[in-house]
Amino acid sequence: MKFFIMTLFPDMVLDALHTSVLGRAAEKGLLDIEAVDIRTFATNKHKRVDDYPYGGGAGLVMQAEPIYRAYQSVQDKTQGNPRVIYLTPQGRVFSQEMARELAKEEELVFLCGHYEGIDERVLEEIVTDQVSIGDYVLTGGELAAMVMVDAISRLVPGVLNNEESAEFESFEDNLLEYPQYSRPEEWMGRRVPAVLLSGHHGKVDEWRREQSLLRTLERRPDLLEKARLTDKDRDFLDKIQKKPCEDA
Ligand code: ADE
């Protein structure tokens, strides 16, 4: 999968995204992450890419022309007409579902803003999707683009060593993942749940399913409404939600 990231800070995104799992995937040729330095497309000798906002107000606005030229340079390298994602707190909130949808694309373009924003006209001209990574304001779109590239990339076949680890995990089917344990069996007086040492796969699966349900109920009850639950799941949730006095 190919990502183009239009930014004023190419080193920031390239360093982070060529580390660990994504770095190895890039070496294997599964991912190709290219940073496009907007500043190199400035049309003045001082390489300025921002100016004062018309109508007054604080801060500077990124100008349309360098961004448009950066975009044209991306277009020259792409096959089709890739989606262009502008990172902004005003966008649709990113989710695992959106990551799954975007992972089906062959190429994606990200546009990272800075200062007080970007001239609206270039957004109208080139952007297909506006996306936020949450209800808070960052100093620029780079961290948001990196979050998205990471979440999308790990869904690309072959990027994770173990295909299973993307199969059952938090948000899969709108349930949070069950707790995990590794050696030793006892640490600081805390023992690994006995069922995990039993070697009984059926019981382990059942326990994990119940832990997922329990965690989701406690931490993210909003997700349960969208989860596909079996009759057995519902019975379990009913049982744990019943107050002791109701049992009498
Ligand atoms: N740029 C600044 N804040 C952002 C956010 N929350 N999400 C995406 N892009 C941003």
Got a strand count?
9
Bound molecules: adenine
Separation of the first and last Cα atoms = 59 Å
Write the CATH fold name of the largest domain: Alpha/beta knot
Count of alpha/pi helices: 10
Which stretches of 5+ consecutive residues score pLDDT under 50?
Answer: none
How do the SSEs run, as a string of H and E? EHHEEEHEHEHEHEEHHHH
| SSE class | alpha/beta
User: Can you tell me the CATH superfamily of the largest domain?
Assistant: SPOUT methyltransferase, trefoil knot domain
Radius of gyration in whole Å, from Cα? 23 Å
Write a brief caption for the model.
This protein has 248 residues and is α/β, with parallel strands linked by helices. 37% of the residues lie in helices and 16% in strands. Helix 1 packs parallel to helix 6 and helix 3 packs parallel to helix 5.
Architecture overview:
This protein is α/β, with parallel strands linked by helices. The chain folds into two domains: 152 residues, 3-Layer(aba) Sandwich (Alpha/beta knot), CATH 3.40.1280.10; 76 residues, tRNA(m1g37)methyltransferase, domain 2 (Trp Operon Repressor, Chain A, Orthogonal Bundle), CATH 1.10.1270.20. The chain is built from ten helices and nine strands. The strands form three sheets. A five-stranded parallel β-sheet has the order 2-1-6-5-7, with helices on both faces. The protein has a two-stranded antiparallel sheet with strand order 3-4. A two-stranded antiparallel sheet has the order 8-9. Strand 5, helix 4 and strand 6 form a beta-alpha-beta unit. Helix 1 runs parallel beside helix 6, helix 3 packs parallel to helix 5 and helix 7 packs across helix 9. The longest helix is centred in the last third of the chain and has 19 residues. It is elongated, with a radius of gyration of 23 Å. The termini are far apart. The model has no long low-confidence stretch (mean pLDDT 94). The site of adenine (ADE) has 11 residues, from strand 5.
